[in-house]
Amino acid sequence: MRRLPGTWDLFKLCRSTLMVSVVSATLVLVNDQHVGAEVQLEKQVSSLGELVTMFDSSSCKECHEQIYTQWEKSHHARPLMGLNDQIFIAGYLKKGPLAVRPGEKAAKCNFPCFKCHFPQIKYATDAVAAEIAEAVLKDDKATVRKLNIGCLVCHNEKAVVHGRPEKHVIYGNKDIKDHPGLPVKKSPLLKNSLMCGQCHGLGPNLEFEHPVQCATLYGSYLHAYIPSGGTETCQECHMRNGDHYMPPNFNNRAELSERLREALPMQVRTLAYSFQPKEGDVRPMVVVNTKITSKAGHRIPDG
Ligand code: HEC
Ligand code: HEC
Ligand code: HEC
Ligand code: HEC
Ligand code: HEC
Asked: Is 241 strand, coil or helix?
């Protein structure tokens, strides 16, 4: 069995360009006749424009309008923009172990965050990382907004865990050979919590030169919710009827508060009484009992 370099091998090696090129050369030699398609998958583009086009999902809107509109409003459509539309990654490029100045010196190793926030970077060279760093440091929001977790990130790149996803295929819940544009192929992973767990995290990501810990919610789902008898998947709670809006949406305060009230019902019982330790000394007292129940399939908040 031939082994392609794992996604993050490329990141680990990013200080040594020489080693990366040795690995790719071997791949081409060994795989020349058999697995052309897979080798091409690891082909890397060298401009941000090409990468954005490779994962462009705007053509899906025409027929999947409702899903597209839901997705557009979701956090998956803006994975590098934080609260109040700030490019949160800018702080990390300016100060700390991932900092780089000027942006053109950046490489993929400056972006361990992209493992989950922009995984398609693995199909691009360091030149693309440098382009992104320049846009981030210039606060060029128009460019950074184009970097998203679009339809093809979930329906191709993150839709299989055994082996590599096939190129030019959309993975779905069933096979549709004559699907317009690209054929749809069934992948059981789409209904599995692991699909989301790939990015929603277990714990620290120790494979990086500068380990990162961000989302850990999938760990809590596996180790607390399931062992205590939980039976629902992420999709059953967050994607009812195929909804791609996937709340909570932190930018919609009113909706968020309402959802949290619903998710964390609180029971409060009180008893008021007076305590008289001695003649003429009456002290008002109160007993408050609170019980908060979580309906979530994991700890909240996460991260
Ligand atoms: C010209 C119209 C059209 C376009 C464009 C289109 N689709 Fe579809 N798609 C359909 C139709 C029709 C179905 C079949 C619905 C059914 O049978 O349930 C479908 C089914 C699917 C399914 C399978 C649904 C399931 O049950 O699992 C997925 C996934 C999907 N499309 C994704 C996409 C993505 C991603 C894009 C853009 C790259 C896209 N589609 C572009 C029309 C389109
Ligand atoms: C293991 C995958 C993973 C890695 C690596 C990762 N993140 Fe995250 N991050 C997520 C997920 C998933 C969420 C959203 C869900 C949540 O908060 O539980 C998130 C949420 C965030 C948020 C809050 C979202 C918002 O809109 O404000 C910030 C900020 C953030 N990450 C920054 C970073 C930075 C900076 C790095 C790199 C130093 C990083 N993350 C690395 C998966 C990751
Ligand atoms: C964050 C990952 C993610 C993104 C992004 C995403 N999808 Fe999905 N999609 C899924 C999963 C998971 C399912 C299966 C849900 C289930 O069956 O419970 C799904 C289901 C679907 C279905 C079948 C819906 C149904 O009712 O059975 C269609 C069609 C679809 N997606 C199209 C799209 C299109 C078009 C986009 C881009 C606008 C998109 N998806 C973006 C994860 C994603
Ligand atoms: C490619 C990685 C990736 C996959 C796969 C993925 N997510 Fe996310 N998800 C993210 C990131 C990154 C964010 C945070 C974006 C931001 O706000 O900066 C996020 C945000 C969210 C949010 C909004 C709340 C929050 O804390 O930001 C929910 C809910 C969510 N994801 C659920 C899901 C579910 C359910 C699935 C599986 C069907 C899934 N995600 C699959 C990366 C992913
Ligand atoms: C039993 C239902 C249930 C299951 C299962 C579940 N969630 Fe949640 N999740 C919730 C509820 C309820 C909230 C609270 C906020 C809300 O409802 O909007 C929440 C909140 C979140 C948040 C926001 C976390 C934060 O910091 O506030 C993310 C991200 C998320 N879920 C992702 C996932 C992923 C990924 C999985 C699977 C590994 C999953 N959820 C499984 C019900 C569930």
From this structure: helix
| Ligand 5 centroid to residue 217 C-alpha, Å | 8
Q: What is the largest CA-CA distance in the chain?
A: 98
CB 185 near ligand 1, within 6 Å? no
Q: Are the CB atoms for 90 and 134 separated by under 8 Å?
A: no
Q: Under 8 Å CB-to-CB from 229, ≥6 apart: which residues?
A: none
pLDDT in tens, 205-248: 999 988 999 999 999 999 999 999 999 999 999 999 999 999 99
State whether the beta carbon of 76 lies less than 6 angstroms from ligand 4. Answer: yes
Contact, 265 vs 295, CB < 8 A? yes
pLDDT digits (tens, 9 = 90+) for 117-152: 999 999 999 999 999 999 999 999 999 999 999 999
Phi-psi map region of 181: left, alpha, beta (phi>0 left; psi -120 to 50 alpha): left
pTM exceeds 0.85: yes
